[in-house]
Amino acid sequence: MTLQIDLARFTNLAIEAHDDGVWVVTLNRPKKRNALDIDTIEELVDFFSAAPRAGVRAVVLAGAGDHFCAGLDLIEHHDADRGPADFMHVCLRWHEAFNKMEYGGVPVIAALQGAVVGGGLELASSAHIRVMDQTAYFALPEGQRGLFTGGGATIRVTDLVGKSRMIDMMLTGRVYQGQEAVDLGLAQYIVEGSSLDRAMELARQAAQNLPLSNFAICSAVSHMQNMSAMDAAYAEAVVAGVVNTQPDARARLAAFADKSAARVRPNS
Ligand code: 1HE
């Protein structure tokens, strides 16, 4: 049974479903530079919990306005004057949302522009593919604000750029942008025009894969990073046993055998 997602529930996220199974999820508080408040995180948890069972074939995650996301809502955090346990629980909800994205099995492609900073970078690094435009820039200003990362940067940003660069970003507020950001792994694509257009193309491409293949690509790879090499190899064999024998794959294999399927060629 396919789960229905009630779009009327969402106010901080603008959500559009397209016929090809690509859903566009837009952080929609541009006046606040899409800062992540409690309600936005809860909406991300709701959407990404439901997406794998709602027929969503790929998600483009975008931010409205000139900036993708300014990170933690610093005004809400200031006004709430939270204690340690309260903020620990805030962070655990961020992890819930971002883990659902990374491990949910639905491809998530982030379309980035302007500031991708603090928690905004933690959010972007939970996507499977990041596309940046020429205005996008990445930073971890937590150190300067008297804060520390709480939404997974110690794991995901370190994974992208390495421990020393991550520590440098936090200690000095270093900003990465342009081709250098791609070379470091903060984004996989940089475009002259709109990152949203390119992200949509990539999402449509990914949405043509069989859902079970995408499920494995977008959850098994992440899970295997957390395992020993021996266990990961075992898990890979089990996942491949299920995915590579799926009945829906037979038509694709038959098309290769009868030479009607596209061949893999170098870029022209
Ligand atoms: C905000 C936020 C925010 C903007 N929380 N309200 N993140 C940061 O340290 C980044 C903080 N933000 C900025 O550095 C800048 O706002 C931007 C580079 C993102 C955009 O600059 P600009 O000139 O376009 O906008 P602005 O004038 O600074 O802000 C416009 C409005 O957005 C203003 O509100 P207004 O009601 O006065 O109009 C700002 O207050 C509001 N705004 N950013 C709340 N972050 C789980 S731990 C994660 C820890 C972190 O993420 S720390 C990093 C926090």
Automatic annotation (TrEMBL):
SUPFAM superfamilies (UniProt xref): ClpP/crotonase
Keyword terms: Lyase
Pfam families reported for this sequence: ECH_1
EC class name: lyase
Superkingdom per UniProt: Bacteria
Example of a GO MF term: enoyl-CoA hydratase activity
Alphabetical list of PROSITE patterns matching this protein: ENOYL_COA_HYDRATASE
Enzyme Commission number, as recorded: 4.2.1.17
Transmembrane segments: none
Gene Ontology biological-process entries: fatty acid beta-oxidation
Entry's family note: Belongs to the enoyl-CoA hydratase/isomerase family.
Designated name of the protein: Enoyl-CoA hydratase
